[in-house]
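Input set for joint prediction.
Command: fold jointly, output tokens.
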Amino acid sequence: MVNYTIDKESDTPLYIQIRDAIKDAIKSGELLPGDRLPSVCSLAKEIGVTQATVRRALQDLSDAGQACCHVGRGTFIQDGSGPTSAPDRMESIGAARTLGPSERAPHGSMEFAVRKLRMGVGKALRDIMSLAEKSGIIHLTKGVPDPRCLPENFLAEVAAEALANFGTELYEATDPLGNYELRREIARRFTAEETPITPDQVLITNGSMQAVTLVAEANMEIGQRVVCETPCFKGITDTFSAMGHWVETLTRDSHGLGQAQLNQLPPDLSYLLYICPYAHNPMGTHLSEERAGILVDWARKTGSLIVADELFKDLGWTGSKPPSIMRELGPEQTVVVSSLSKSIMTGMRLGWLISSPQRIQQLAQLKKLMDHSAPSLIQGMALTIFRSGRYDAHTEKMAEVYRQRRDAMLKALDRYMPKEVTWTRPDGGFSLLLELPRGYSSVALFLSAIDKGVAFLPGPLFDIDQRFVHCCRLSYAWPDEAEIKEGIELLASAVEDFLRRPPGDSGLSGLGSYH
Amino acid sequence: MVNYTIDKESDTPLYIQIRDAIKDAIKSGELLPGDRLPSVCSLAKEIGVTQATVRRALQDLSDAGQACCHVGRGTFIQDGSGPTSAPDRMESIGAARTLGPSERAPHGSMEFAVRKLRMGVGKALRDIMSLAEKSGIIHLTKGVPDPRCLPENFLAEVAAEALANFGTELYEATDPLGNYELRREIARRFTAEETPITPDQVLITNGSMQAVTLVAEANMEIGQRVVCETPCFKGITDTFSAMGHWVETLTRDSHGLGQAQLNQLPPDLSYLLYICPYAHNPMGTHLSEERAGILVDWARKTGSLIVADELFKDLGWTGSKPPSIMRELGPEQTVVVSSLSKSIMTGMRLGWLISSPQRIQQLAQLKKLMDHSAPSLIQGMALTIFRSGRYDAHTEKMAEVYRQRRDAMLKALDRYMPKEVTWTRPDGGFSLLLELPRGYSSVALFLSAIDKGVAFLPGPLFDIDQRFVHCCRLSYAWPDEAEIKEGIELLASAVEDFLRRPPGDSGLSGLGSYH
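tokens >
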């Protein structure tokens, strides 16, 4: 035990006494890198000082690189050069790459400080977004489906049908795995498109976020390194972080991750890799078959698990849809997550997870302890949506709607955007990623764009380290074709004005590494 | 870093080489008590051996008291006398007390082994329970409400009304805090009965299990010691364990925890204490006002947080309901959790959590990352159930139904049960706890009872350490009064036969400490 005895009569400030007690314990080996300190609250109680005093002491240690605060998990001892033992071997990837090459040498506590700063910036960014909440703005922002696209009384009819079909069965909680008939229906659909699976390979969750939460929580024991492709929907990386993981990132291009990115990972470890292979959010493009093959080979070689988020799978245009990663890699090394949130509506919170029967059993036990099961009525309604043909009819209709809106956006971009600007060409989904010339901040552009009457989401919202500062996500999920055309025209005029200024001419452009 | 280099050509078995490498690292101070070892999977990969070999090595260390496997979290180094630093100071309480006084000295790894064994026994017990799934058995087992007690078409009418009232608003996900009107309704009801609260003190969850999950996950950073009264619904203690906490238990009597139990906790620490103050599951009794006062004083003195599970609050008989702990202790030190699962139905998975605005904000952020929000339709339906008067009408009706069933059970127990047997007298809820003379196992009794045609839940199912072997939970939630009378008569005859045998005459009686 560390001896925290302090002398309240001494001239030495209390926080310095505490700081030095911890430093001594590190020197003597009582505390080792990776050790977790007691919480601020219990340290304060144990030593008999205020929490502010303890925080002050920890701040000093953190500044000196001898401790780091891992958000959501407490304060850990460091060796003064690295944040924990984990990132030591990872210096070529992820957060480390957010520093310029010359700064790379003494990463570690710096890396943590940078990430923490960026988390604060993230909050500020979300506050800035609220500026777009005024009337007359064309929103190229929304990442969820427009409920007005559903047939009138959709939910009322589905609820009534489900209750008529399943009756009081829906009054009681289901097995934590979920309604068996719903699991069978999902298994049947996956089997028809991909590779044969059984209902015991399906777990029903409260949206795909909970599917990722279960995988993240289970991995606390398994201990695979968590890697996410980036850009990435930040809900995913934030969830892995909140569950206690340090998240590494690999930058993808519009085809997905390539061999060069995977080579940045030490080959002697096994990983949990999160990817969004269909109509990637925010890029809108599918993972190419060639890149899928590279990922499968890498996963086999390293014994890694690939978590494939197939949220947009049924909202792609026909002809270009690659097979699921699971078809090649098999269920032992793949987790497929999906939900009705993009295809039908977000309000149902109905998702699912497909993997090996053994993993499904383990995750169902966790699900049982976390919230027992998904609401029975919602599960019955999902089954009704699938079985009645509504799912296929609606996704087919909406894929065509979104394709037309994408075409309208691409056409307007071609016509109005300055030639220095580039963008991805979505294979499906809701959005594309637009790239300004390096050095121009999407956050600064956002502020002038809403003055012109159009809003989008700045790139830093799609990366745990707030990179992609020169990128913008433009969504065509809600506006109609005329609004899209007008929105892009307004945005192009904001971009034109903006590019007349020299690059880097914005306080917010210093946020990221511009790659 | 521990040096795990092994010599595959050596005559020394691989697992012994690994075990000794870890022992050496402990001796040299490289590994300290409380340190977590890498996962079995990654150790196996790093060393280049099979996982079975690593497990064998860890088993040896565990047998020697130098490591312990904390379920769901991995393997931790121990000093050979205690399981982690936590229970060292807790020797007088909880799991330690499951050992006889003479065995108490070298607890630690023993304690963990015992708890692990009991978790295995718990699974076996649940398998045994399935023996009751045959026709003609009177079930005094169910801890959930009977959906047949609800008015016909209840769910269909509520769903239709909610959709008529709130329309397409229910198609989109709500704020992670939940539907504002529902939060306002819950705040209004709590204010009317207890102490004024505002909607920003209410968070909507997927059942009360998720409310407990959020509190448990948030406490991973705060670090208060987790203590649960026992007996206790095992879902609660299992959830705290799965989220990474070591759960201590204090034995309650039918009035709740007393000063003597609280005195077993070191007074210089602060705790997270879980209690079920209304119609306790399984005892059925309310926390007495005197005991509530003792708990409030203790919480103030130690700065502890009390999690009060008010699941059965509205299913008590009028006149005996004490005020909520929050009225005296205040929202900063209280979390109230509740749900519709006992009062209306389990299938909705709709619960809530009441605390300080600041804690609600923190927990909502976690909720957002775990599964975003509760399904909007389910929230709209809960609001409809409250606003339409259905909630009050149904709970009032059911409280009377359950009171009559309780009376039928108490009357039958008085009439048929041998005089050595005692039981609690429920103030509400679904069940009572029956106590056999010490030394008689409820598990053995269960087997003869189902032969006679009646089933109940054995006491070990209500304790994380499988104690309360001589106790039985008898539920009157589902059977009608005639079935209850017949069921108790059958049970009494099984008990009579059973008590003719000498105590301890059962392989399963060795499970617990009989207190």
